[in-house]
Amino acid sequence: MIEKLALIGIGLIGSSIALRARERGLAKTIAIATRRPETLAEAQALGLGDQYTLDAAEAVRDADIVILCTPVGSYGSIAKEIAGALKPGAILSDVGSVKAHVHKVVGPLVPKGVHFIPGHPMAGTEHSGPSAGFAELFDNRWCILTPEPDQPLEAVETMKAFWRALGSDVELMDADHHDLVVAITSHVPHLIAYNIVGTADDLESVTKSEVIKFSAGGFRDFTRIAASDPVMWRDVFLTNRSAVLEMLGRFLEDLSTLQRAVRVGDGPALESLFTRTRAIRRSIIEAGQETAAPDFGRPHGADTKTEA
Amino acid sequence: MIEKLALIGIGLIGSSIALRARERGLAKTIAIATRRPETLAEAQALGLGDQYTLDAAEAVRDADIVILCTPVGSYGSIAKEIAGALKPGAILSDVGSVKAHVHKVVGPLVPKGVHFIPGHPMAGTEHSGPSAGFAELFDNRWCILTPEPDQPLEAVETMKAFWRALGSDVELMDADHHDLVVAITSHVPHLIAYNIVGTADDLESVTKSEVIKFSAGGFRDFTRIAASDPVMWRDVFLTNRSAVLEMLGRFLEDLSTLQRAVRVGDGPALESLFTRTRAIRRSIIEAGQETAAPDFGRPHGADTKTEA
Ligand SMILES: NC(=O)c1ccc[n+]([C@@H]2O[C@H](COP(=O)([O-])OP(=O)(O)OC[C@H]3O[C@@H](n4cnc5c(N)ncnc54)[C@H](OP(=O)(O)O)[C@@H]3O)[C@@H](O)[C@H]2O)c1
Ligand SMILES: NC(=O)c1ccc[n+]([C@@H]2O[C@H](COP(=O)([O-])OP(=O)(O)OC[C@H]3O[C@@H](n4cnc5c(N)ncnc54)[C@H](OP(=O)(O)O)[C@@H]3O)[C@@H](O)[C@H]2O)c1
């Protein structure tokens, strides 16, 4: 158990960390800082921590582990605010969805004697804010840590143990490679989901009411990730530009080929792609990263309307 | 209650119709025909019907309602096989995911005195075969019927009542318009899901094992529909080509704009699209077409691994 954990930002990810850390007794004191008084009041009402403040520097004072849990675009100014208050020997970490940018922006502001161990839990939902969190969010998911090689092994081990205690498996990775991996497993999927929902919203030949009524044929799946927080995702695309553009380029090349197969009516090419893609889902299910239940286990039947 | 219902094809959709029709007593006799003996034996073991045969013509003899439940590409040859055996006054219907093509291919083969009322239930899962079906599949979903205007009102009303009894809401639509609607709500979503899963599978810079481990960031959502039946989806793209290419064209235009916004770092444009797309999901949830539970209600926590 550490003496003090400070969470800067207390939305979906921050509150999930707080709940599990409390449940498992990972810190004697949990200090919570956020920007808006409403959010702080909500966190306090939920009993997520022991200390609540609008002053990030106050929250990090004496903390052994400090975790930034705000959108990546806010890291620079927060790092400036807290740098002077970090205690020697403390670990500064984060949960941001991009990593090279975080090293570049926060790295130079980290005081000597503070260990900078950036991280990214590959877990989330489309909901935001302190009440969206739950203790099980990280169970069986992966958390990627991207410390520079000059960081002390002990600090890295502390963060590994911390994420394992939260329920995650942990992997170490170079920040640039992390950004490529998430570009294909998370960022480009979000981009194309946002895009197709936008396209459907703009059509004149098909009405919005038709899109909504008949969405169960596949479209609604995309609306889940396209309902994710706009500011968080704006920051992701502003800060992981080159990896996203590279992976999007690959996606578009492949889509041209597929478009052509549809145009010329190349049945064997279509069937062969559609057969190959099934195997990946099976592997994801076997790896414990997805449910085997049909339709994600969505409710069917009479209770659907009530539930929605 | 009708005397005899004939289902030609007994996969996910056919078996779901059979189960609900039995449960609600919609037909005195349910006749089932399919192509392969194994599938017929599976249907029989599940007790889905009253008569089982490999001869579609035999199944439709004396049937009041005949529903084609096979991939759309097989309709032409099946229609030829059964045309002579359809009884005068019978209704011939189907569940195929495209409609203009079905009118074109099957329409001319329908004998005088048989009423042709094509249909498409907007409901499904990624699983296939007789054991994938369940009686609740159509509850609160929409079924679109696309009869030609010259069909007798009574036959249309019979099929409307039939689908309502299965649990669906029913909408009448022109076949060409149907094909445009499903191109954006179902076919293009499937195409881009298949495509991104293919892209991820082909990368060298990111390994397949990384794609699988870190898929919970969004990618795994796409693998569900990209695990759908390859033959069914091959046939969809071969038979709804022009509507799919038109909607794909719109998607690609919009994606170019979005790609440019990422490239130039246009934060306000990104945030504004990402804000707009949230509203559509809310409407879909309000319309009872989607669960409000975070992450589709996927299991989280300790049971995830077991369930998978
Ligand atoms: N959501 C996911 O699925 C997911 C998954 C993995 C990693 N992440 C990463 O986790 C981080 C937080 O995401 P989240 O989903 O927890 O977000 P969230 O639920 O929207 O919460 C964001 C938190 O950050 C604060 N905040 C927002 N803008 C700020 C600013 N400019 N300055 C200071 N504080 C600010 C908010 O405070 P106020 O309400 O007080 O303004 C709130 O406490 C992001 O970096 C994201 O990339 C998210
Ligand atoms: N799956 C969905 O989400 C969904 C939703 C709405 C509409 N639909 C439409 O419903 C229809 C059936 O889909 P499904 O998901 O139920 O498929 P499925 O589970 O794969 O079952 C297909 C059935 O059709 C038979 N079949 C396949 N190829 C055939 C051929 N060439 N000749 C004769 N019979 C053949 C199969 O018989 P054997 O096993 O004996 O070969 C099986 O009984 C398709 O037209 C599809 O477009 C599907």
Describe it:
Two copies of one chain form a homodimer. Chain A is an alpha/beta fold and 308 residues long. Chain A contains 13 helices and nine strands. In chain A, the strands form two sheets. The first copy, chain A, has a six-stranded parallel sheet with strand order 3-2-1-4-5-6. Chain A has a three-stranded mixed sheet with strand order 7-8-9, with helices on one face. In chain A, strand 2, helix 2 and strand 3 form a beta-alpha-beta unit. In chain A, helix 7 packs across helix 9 and helix 7 packs across helix 11. The radius of gyration of chain A is 21 Å and the shape is globular. The C terminus of chain A is likely disordered. Chains A and B meet through helix 7, helix 8, helix 9, helix 10 and helix 11 of A and helix 7, helix 8, helix 9, helix 10 and helix 11 of B. Bound molecules: NADP nicotinamide-adenine-dinucleotide phosphate (2 copies). Chains A, B: This is prephenate dehydrogenase. Chains A, B: It comes from Pelagibacterium lentulum.
